[in-house]
Amino acid sequence: MGGQIADALLNIVQDKFHVGASPTTVCMCDLTAALDLQQPTVSHRPHVGAILTRMSTVVDMPETRGHLVSAITTASDPGEILYLSSRADFSEGGSIRGGVPIIAPWFGKNLGHDELQHGWARRVEWETIPTNGGIDARTSHDDWDLRLGTQVLPHGFAMMLKARNASPLRRDFQSAFHPYFRVADVRTTTVTVGDHEFRFDGTAVDQAVPLPEWTPLVIKDSQRTITVTYQGADHAVVWNPGSELAAQMTDVGEGEWTEFVCVEPALLGDQAQGISVPPWDWVEIGMTVKVTPAQQS
């Protein structure tokens, strides 16, 4: 059974990234054996850095960006959990449309920052470090130290972001995971956040919902259910641009607004004013994503 799963997953990866078995194209390091032994495998390519496998999931992160761009699981069909725009921009200093952007140290244009949407974390260079069963990434900028951990799970993945105020002054801070979840058709997808249920008809949806201490975030379409649990978040932001706004976005492919919904665990603070972080203190936020096929939901 393990060999069949590994073969299927290898085919998915090769089809997705148009790679062959040759180690000069991509060093897969015997993906089948890695899956059977439940151990990670690492690869490096020009703009796609670490591919790690464990049981029935593969995750993919650019070598110099703390940004998960793909998570493929054999737990569902289709296997790709995340949407990545056909027009995604991987250029230095740009923001990649899709995957899981890291939002920090502010959300939107909050905290008095009008010049850069969602902070600098998704735009700067990171160092990525393959680990046993995951990928670590780190960066430092503007007296903030960010540490990102990504852990591969049997039917999904988990992420943890830690931030340290490396300044002698108390500072306000916000952070979020901004996952673009791939769906069969957002117009037939429901998102549930506690007592709030969201449906999508082509008009833009952008709403921050305060979270109780714990409640799962659930994305359900005709093919599967994606369940998101979180740690340290105080809001969930639900976003889809709808048809009109998407048509104005140069990095979203034509008609692709129907292929994703963003459900974002976020640490925004009271009235979205951030939280105050003392000098040298750490703050963290975590997210776990699990995929269940529709027939098992």
Automatic annotation (TrEMBL):
InterPro entries: Gal_mutarotase_sf_dom (IPR011013), GH-type_carb-bd (IPR014718). Gene3D superfamilies: 2.70.98.10. One of its GO terms (biological process) is carbohydrate metabolic process. It comes from the Bacteria. One of its GO terms (molecular function) is catalytic activity. This is Aldose epimerase. It comes from Corynebacterium rouxii.
